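Predict the assembly for these two chains.
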Amino acid sequence: MPQLRIALAQVNATVGDLAGNASLIAAWTARAAADGAHVVVFPEMVLTGYPVEDLALRQSFASASRQALTELAARLDADGHGSVAAVVSYLDRDDVGPRDAVAVLYDGRVAATQFKHHLPNYGVFDERRLFKPGHTLDIVRLHGLEIGMVICEDIWQEGGPIAALGAAGVDLVVAPNASPYERHKDDQREPLVARRAAEAGAPLVYVNQVGGQDDLVFDGDSMVVSESGELLTRLPQFVEHLTVMDLDLPGGAPTLAGDLAGFAVRRVPLSDAPLAPYPARPLPDAFEPLSELEEMWRALTLGLCDYVRKNGFTSVVLGLSGGIDSAVTAALAVDALGASNVYGVSMPSVYSSDHSKSDAADLAERVGCHYQEQPIANMVEVFVSQLALTGLAEENVQARCRGVTLMALSNQHGHLVLATGNKTELAVGYSTIYGDAVGGFAPIKDVPKTLVWELARWRNEAAAARGETPPIPENSITKPPSAELRPGQMDADSLPDYDLLDRVLDDYIEGDRGYSDLVAAGFAPELIDRVLRMVDRAEYKRRQYPPGTKITFKAFGRDRRLPMTNAWREGK
Amino acid sequence: MPQLRIALAQVNATVGDLAGNASLIAAWTARAAADGAHVVVFPEMVLTGYPVEDLALRQSFASASRQALTELAARLDADGHGSVAAVVSYLDRDDVGPRDAVAVLYDGRVAATQFKHHLPNYGVFDERRLFKPGHTLDIVRLHGLEIGMVICEDIWQEGGPIAALGAAGVDLVVAPNASPYERHKDDQREPLVARRAAEAGAPLVYVNQVGGQDDLVFDGDSMVVSESGELLTRLPQFVEHLTVMDLDLPGGAPTLAGDLAGFAVRRVPLSDAPLAPYPARPLPDAFEPLSELEEMWRALTLGLCDYVRKNGFTSVVLGLSGGIDSAVTAALAVDALGASNVYGVSMPSVYSSDHSKSDAADLAERVGCHYQEQPIANMVEVFVSQLALTGLAEENVQARCRGVTLMALSNQHGHLVLATGNKTELAVGYSTIYGDAVGGFAPIKDVPKTLVWELARWRNEAAAARGETPPIPENSITKPPSAELRPGQMDADSLPDYDLLDRVLDDYIEGDRGYSDLVAAGFAPELIDRVLRMVDRAEYKRRQYPPGTKITFKAFGRDRRLPMTNAWREGK
């Protein structure tokens, strides 16, 4: 059977960095070529990075992307790799509008071009705002084999380009993707890719982006699946990776062109002669998917690392309260950036317990980060006495003096501030705007409180299993949570038990269930009332919170956009 | 010719307040009925308010909207107004998905229903995320006249429902709208409505929402245009208004049904017999559009008023620096809420000039708002000495101590904090996050600096023309702008001249022009470099800024959504 050596380049591009991304593509094409690859496939919009948001609408950006593509084709040829077909996705623009596009670069030129057909416009995606859909397919002939292309969402929808490729006839389908990580998502991908390979009647090469961008993190998890549904290889999650593999392809697919299943199909001959038979290597091992908790930890670490790095920061500063949220955030930061780039600050007030200081110091020692104590009593005292503050106003001033302290250290020393709030707090508005909500990034923003504890235990066990010091102090995990903004204050005074609260929130937010569904699920009506009222009132606070890596189905900000002025009360 | 008395109910609904909106509709239907109206037309999604954002996706909200509609139909009949055809738009949901819908309530029931066809998905609109398009048209027969319906965007696009109504035959078209205000937008509406009336071959009754919702403000500006393009009446801007008018309609339109121009057209008979001839009233006077500056002032006032009111606040607090931005913000707040609900705070630091205090006090006296002085020197001193702050870190701590002070007063006394930043500052990032950016609402967020001055002069002149005290101190208008965060600091040290800066920003942001276009427009390359670098770096700050009423084509947040991590540098 005709052979082909194909490279999957699972890379981490940066949004807007056309020159840097072009160099990345050139370097990985060279690596693929050095390993004898005939085709190299990059993720969706690798040249511009993804998602570009409204940059897609800027004429000057689209022009620059087109120009960078043409220059890249010439550069690959000049580097001696013109005979490697490089599948490079980019931002195009024509008379109809902006396009999410993919090109085949070959022999120094842009040999084939195709536009994404299915434009997702739900959840984190706004592609109908940004792009116009394509209705043409370019099938390239390389060494006598017919290679079709589809882009990301094109494989998530029934019909469309995959059906057209199946009708036209192809020997191989390549699919550049930018599919964000989300808990349990990898369970969906493999069967999906298998189904589309069967529909196309050809193996499908799925290459996904890796890396963090704003509040999204892409996990890679690229794969190749045969037309009979067999997983031929799978790439690792959360790291850049190049896999070069040999495929035996049947060849002899029909080569219909013209109007097929609603698409204008064009055949683009690059080279007709099949390759002389060569000794194929064994299939590369498929990487196993990570365990669920490790997968989330790695997602949070990579999202944090890339947000800091791609924004030009090298170090972070955060408040250490001795509690579980700041401990987990610090452990993530150390895993992401190294202990020498993490600055922890204990900021005790007159209401802080002794263990808040000792647990914070213990954490800092365990993870090896910088540590200082900055008591806030003097700052708070000036505000409270001058403005005659009492009650909630006095509580909030403490959180805000901490916020001002962290921002001052950031301005003075150039660290990015990390906010340490979790998803449960954000959901019910249990945080102080301009206080603990201060920061450039919020690593556990999308992690419910009960999952924060689970991750802490998992991380400690993973360390112990490697013979390392568990990073999170046991006391931070086991002690009852408290904001310590007034004497003896406990979270349990203001909030339902976290196990119960997270179950209501999961049903209401992730499950989008209404009041009557929640009653039917067995929750007490008073509890539902109380929780839903808190959630519905907190939208403004959530909007003002820093971004954080999305790991759930419905992350605040990205997936759930509610009015700030909203009189709707569920069940009332 | 057959007659009909029609009421345009230009009302201010509240998002999510189904019960309140139903009562509003019932009250205005009663007013219309008392004036003898046969039809009353309300704005788009009046029953739910508009825009509902992702509330549209909640099953329980859609069910509640449908139920509220049915109950409203019964209530109108029970009130004795069953024979008035009430055109009420609402959120519907069927097996296909959520729908932006309009119904005719008649005789105690939902007599006709139709779904919006053209779903805008650009600028401030995300309707393809939220709704599924409709492909059916219900034409009701009332007193022997055929009345067709279209919803908002359906008249902004060529073809579609208007063309189908023209083909089917109607005597009248009614169009509920939720069309947000934007500078110069009313210039577009009248010719558009006239063109669609001609295409439908019937007069068009255009009823637009009025009021603020989040960062949008709806200006009303409802109108009726004859099929020959004559403006028959126009309602005032920025206020609720009921116009009841008599129309002489030709009658005898063809009454085709079935598949027409891609729509399934259904005829819904309500009553066949024409009305006995009655003495028609003269046409009501058409309100003149406001002057451009008054229009903007009113938009900003209404947006601010409704944000405060609909969020359950009655009073606001803001910092008064003696500068033009806080002076204009205070004047807007007083016009919106009354002087007794506005609390001004002067917060001088050691670097504050004497005129900053005297101009602030002068402003407070002119507008009659509450006024207090809260020096921040003691608070700043604790942070600066304890944390050893210098340079920018010291400057920012001053702004942040002011932010903490305002939030403390808000928490203690229940006022909403207003941020006083203008669009130019936001564009270039000339503000302190968690400092002057603190607040629940930012009234002049979308007003460029040069326009702030223009509005101040206009407001003073308007006061003088009425024999009132001009609210803005002359010195606040004429003195050179300064942040006063270090000795002798002037905006001009950090920023280009505001006249020049606003012209570059207008071309870059509103005009979406790229680097080479700006060079071609004659701006110095160094200036373009400098301004664009500042704008591109400030996206994160802009995201954290409070919402404010949109009055321009490209308001930050709503219309221009850029990545926070973005390496793209225009022209580099």
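Chain B has a mean pLDDT of 95. The first helix of chain B runs from residue 18 to 34.
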